[in-house]
Amino acid sequence: MVVAACVVVAAGAVAGVLSAFDGSRATDEAVPAEVSASPRLAPLPAVPSPSAPTVTESASASASPSPSARPTRSPSRPRTETKREHTATVPGRLYRHPDSQVLEWVRAHSGDPRHAVIASRIAQQPAAVWFADYSPQTVTARVAAVTSGGTALGRVPVVVPYAIPGRDCGGHSQGGAPDLNAYDAWIDRFAQGLGSGAVIVVLEPDSVAQTECLSAAARADRFASLARAGRVLKAANPRARVYFDAGHSGWNAPARQAAWLRQAGAASPESSDGIFSNVSNFHATADEVAYDRRVLDALGGPASLGAVIDTSRNGNGAPADGEWCDPAGRKLGRAPTLSTGESRIDAYLWVKLPGESDGCKGRPGTFTASYAYALASSDSASS
What we know:
Distance between the termini: 25 Å
Number of strands: 9
Radius of gyration: 19 Å
Largest sheet: 7 strands, parallel
Structural class: alpha/beta
Shape: globular
């Protein structure tokens, strides 16, 4: 991404997560349903805003993309009434998928002096599994491998579809489906792998917050596809909880972000369970909690809407200069949990795997032990 996102850079192989981009490990046996092109909806009116406010040491399968970080700006506080107190409704414990770049490194480097720290503080944590390549023939089976693993253990997996066309505005994480019709079909196949157990879907990091590079027409088309994706995912598995991209607290003002989210279907319970933020950036948890509540206030929608926050690398907050690409001095954040104790905050997740590069310490999405160790070796690991 440009100096913009916060999301996906190297996000792919996220924590303890299977590098879900490799289509060589499985074949897709399910027959995808026939897909019609998604309708392109006219933009909804905006919500009024009162004031403007290194070498890779080990890589499993293929690397996932990466996001970027917008210049920090102070979000304005929208004048909206506090409508409700929503508490997390996602039951259970998070799932750690047994196939990930960090786990591969741990298994292959038992004698490395960094082994114990990386194994205990990163590899043992549940994290998201990214699906960042456009491989329609295998995506159903690969998603099913993750969701069925979680269901078998009674745990909740976190999956990240990341194939929207034009993602990252042509930056480090560029790629995705060739066009929106192809993306709609890919999402249908993705949804077929969700199974029937509880699952969290972090839908397309940066896809809403980073749309300034698109024309108004292209933005409306993307939002229509995202709204459709939410409906398809929730229809395929009613227990799936789908969260939409809210950027992070140093990016768009809450009212502006909420206006885009409404156009993308995030206020509709047929498409959405709420929003996610800080993927894969470094902003402090307290800042994200406050920001997400403001976005939810401006967004409207049912009382059930909540937020999830990526806390994987935010233990020391964001760099003062706004650097987003493998910045020095960062720390692990709060451990992933479905019990945050915060109203309207459904989970703290490790969406971005600590140690996977944003594109500066290695190729985006590839695991670098030196980076992982720097994040994990600090005595302070919370924010």
